[in-house]
Amino acid sequence: MGLFNSLSQAVCLLSFATSLAGAQKAEGSAFTDATSQISFWNTKVASTGGYEFGIALPPDGSAKNDEYIGRLVGVIGAKGGWSGISHKGPMTNSLLLLAWADGDKVTTSFRWATEYSLPDPYGGNATLTEISHKVNATHFELVYQCQGCWNWEQDAETTASQDPATVDSLALGYAQGKQSPAPVTDVNGRISFHDNGFGIYTVDVANARQEGYEGFLGGSSSSPNSPSSGSSNSSSSSGSSGSSGSSGSSGSSQPQLVC
Ligand code: HEM
């Protein structure tokens, strides 16, 4: 039994609003991934099949304020599917990140949208470095380092940001589509609409900060996983994992849903 099973049992729905002003503070809890030993502030969304996003930020005062470690869990249905986040909440003028399973790999793609239609490939300098991934018949999990992910530049005229150092609460968005991008192997493949849910929520920055952040990245011997080499704008993993399920520990309580 593992995380993936608990995902499919999710029955409560976060009450998301579609405007930032109405964004709900997400219920979440501390969660430590058993494989990577990375600790996150983890939020679940009760889409059909499930969605989870965990975030770990560097400690307060760190010079690394343009990055985080993320953990994204998405459902795989009959037509595959994708799961994504907006790094500022709304779909538009915010760095979008999608991930989907391609066989036993997890593929990622940074995108940018200026309107509510098919997002473009992102033109700025975000870098995703995979730390670990898992794929089974029903879900995928990706743990990654995201650098250059809070300050964005799509082109010279189009910039935006959300700086964790200057806000108490991060606004984030989630979106999930039931169909994999096509072709599934293409990081810039055509995205289908998010027909399995979308919305905005907030996370307290203080909850997401992790004193052990550097160690999670291999900066200390306590981390079993060293990040693979990253690539700008998008990255595709080719790991060997095909293991089913994921395990994790959240201490005495599992991540809580808002009912
Ligand atoms: C074909 C691609 C896409 C289309 C046509 C599309 C279209 C839309 C539309 C029409 C809405 C407003 C829905 C409403 O308020 O009822 C919306 C909202 C949203 N979308 Fe997308 N979307 C696409 C891809 C994405 C992707 C890839 C992401 C993130 C990775 C995303 C994230 C969001 C989020 C977070 C919202 C809710 C917040 C907001 O209203 O801005 N979308 N989208």
From TrEMBL:
Residue span(s) of domain Cellobiose dehydrogenase-like cytochrome: 31-214
The signal sequence is 1-23
Q: Which UniProt keywords apply?
A: Signal
- The segment annotated Disordered runs over 214-259
Per its UniProt record, what InterPro entries does this chain match? Cellobiose_DH-like_cyt (IPR015920), GMC_Oxidoreductase_CD (IPR053208)
State the Pfam families in the record: CDH-cyt (PF16010)
Q: What segments bear the compositional bias annotation Low complexity?
A: 219-253
Coiled-coil zones = none
User: PANTHER family in the record, alphabetically?
Assistant: DEHYDROGENASE, PUTATIVE-RELATED (PTHR47190), GLUCOSE-METHANOL-CHOLINE OXIDOREDUCTASE N-TERMINAL DOMAIN-CONTAINING PROTEIN (PTHR47190:SF1)
Query: What protein does this entry describe?
Result: CBD9-like protein
Origin species, per record, is: Eremomyces bilateralis CBS 781.70
Upper lineage ranks? Eukaryota, Fungi, Dikarya, Ascomycota, Pezizomycotina
